[in-house]
Amino acid sequence: MDKLESVGAVWHLLHLVSLDKPPQGKPCNGCGLCCIAEVFDLGKELGDEEQCRALMPLRAGRFARGLVTDPYRFLSPDRLAPWRAIDQLAPGAQGEEALKSHFAGLLGTGRGCDADDEAIRAFQVEADANRQLPLM
Ligand code: SF4
Description:
single chain; 136 residues; mainly alpha; two-stranded antiparallel ribbon; binds iron/sulfur cluster
């Protein structure tokens, strides 16, 4: 992950974050900070450059990347057509499983936290500095 461009519109999502980010390179704990701080290119392709449409809040304050866990929910029918064709030909939803593996590879799933520690810290500091006080 490169240096982040902070996007004020997503600061409101930080209240959903409850886990501390592990150091870069350590196992991912699903804290969600990377995807909140910056939408990855694959997420941008879903049509929102400020808030990832495929970021899925889970219980216990964790997040999942929807393109890896449930890609059929987020892609257009056009983009899913080849994968659904494989499903038709092979038993066991092999097209869907192949698509999940494809996105897992592209997003580095299983390779540890890839979010730059300093960039995430700077994002959090900026969010704290701009947090609006309640009017009453
Ligand atoms: S890659 Fe890092 S910042 Fe992103 S969810 Fe995993 S632990 Fe959190």
